[in-house]
Design brief:
The protein is of the alpha/beta class. It has a single domain, classed as Alpha-Beta Barrel (TIM Barrel), CATH 3.20.20. An 8-stranded parallel β-barrel has the order 1-2-5-6-9-10-11-12, surrounded by 8 helices. Strand 13 and strand 14 form a beta hairpin. The longest helix is centred in the first third of the chain and has 14 residues. It starts with 6 loop residues before the first strand and ends in an 8-residue tail after the last helix. The mean pLDDT is 96.
Length: 279
């Protein structure tokens, strides 16, 4: 298989803190430095959240703006993807950074259970986030926690509500949502290939399942996500020393399955994204 594999690095998230792993980058400066190392290790997409000074989640557009400026300077060409996830804010606050026009933004198109709460994504909010992404030329990465989310993403894209090329990420291993199940994974992939053959898909596994899903996705011809947001350990007994270490581990799997790691230029071409801004 010669198709390049896009590696996305989810650098921070909304949950992991310094107490869980000191390598989790929570300030904007730390995030820029950690992303640069991950970029040099092979990641072509950065999936980014921002935090307040006390490490709590934030949707502050000013913090996102400073992060975007730093990433464009230190990681030229890398695809910048902002999170509109529900842990960082409520309602339209979740999309307050979209006018900054990052290359991509995450989009959850349906609700599901999380470990201790319901992750609410009501249709009116989904429509507003999707419309705001369209207005600002931002390609969604649909985060699918359930089969219904994949089908909804295909419908929304068919109806012209999602900007750009359809890109769906299977998220597996969240407690109370979809577990890591090979039969389900293969069915998800078949649904995408049969019903949206021109789309691209990727997959992310949570916790110890990160490496499992990385391998399934790479072997099956998809793209994949790694990073300290989803998993703070390199193995059961060892904290991951950095985001870059998790990216390098993923790149080794690409080598195992004889798939080249996508450069940022290849990733932009595969996903139909505009050229990187001139510096």
């Amino acid at each position: 298989m010669t198709k390049p594999c896009i590696i996305c690095c989810a650098i921070t998230g909304s949950v992991a803190r310094k107490e869980n792993n000191p390598a989790v980058p929570t300030t904007v400066d730390e995030q820029i430095e950690s992303t640069q190392a991950a970029f040099e290790a092979g990641a072509s997409i950065v999936h980014a959240h921002v935090r307040n000074d006390d490490q709590t989640p934030s949707s502050d557009p000013d913090r996102f703006a400073r992060l975007k400026e730093g990433l464009e300077k230190h990681c030229p060409g890398m695809i910048i993807q902002f999170s509109t996830g529900g842990r960082s804010g409520a309602g339209q606050e979740r999309g307050g950074m979209l006018p900054l026009a990052p290359d991509m933004a995450s989009l959850s198109v349906g609700s599901n259970n999380f470990p201790s709460r319901v992750y609410e994504n009501p249709p009116d909010l989904v429509d507003w986030l999707a419309a705001t992404m369209r207005e600002n030329g931002v390609t969604p990465e649909v985060e699918a926690f359930d089969l219904s989310h994949i089908l909804q993403a295909i419908r929304l894209h068919r109806d012209g509500k999602l900007y750009g090329k359809l890109y769906v990420q299977f998220v597996m291993g969240v407690k109370n949502a979809m577990p890591v199940d090979r039969e389900v994974f293969d069915f998800y992939r078949k649904v995408m290939e049969d019903r949206a053959p021109d789309a691209e898909w990727c997959a992310a596994g949570i916790g110890a399942n990160q490496i499992v899903i990385n391998e399934w996705a790479i072997a099956a011809g998809g793209h994949t996500r790694t990073g300290l947001e989803d998993n703070v350990r390199i193995d059961r007994n060892t904290l991951a020393p950095s985001n870059a270490a998790l990216v390098r581990r993923t790149a080794e799997l690409c080598e195992k399955y004889e798939r080249p790691v996508a450069t940022w230029q290849q990733a932009r071409d595969i996903l139909g994204l505009k050229s990187a801004p001139a510096m």
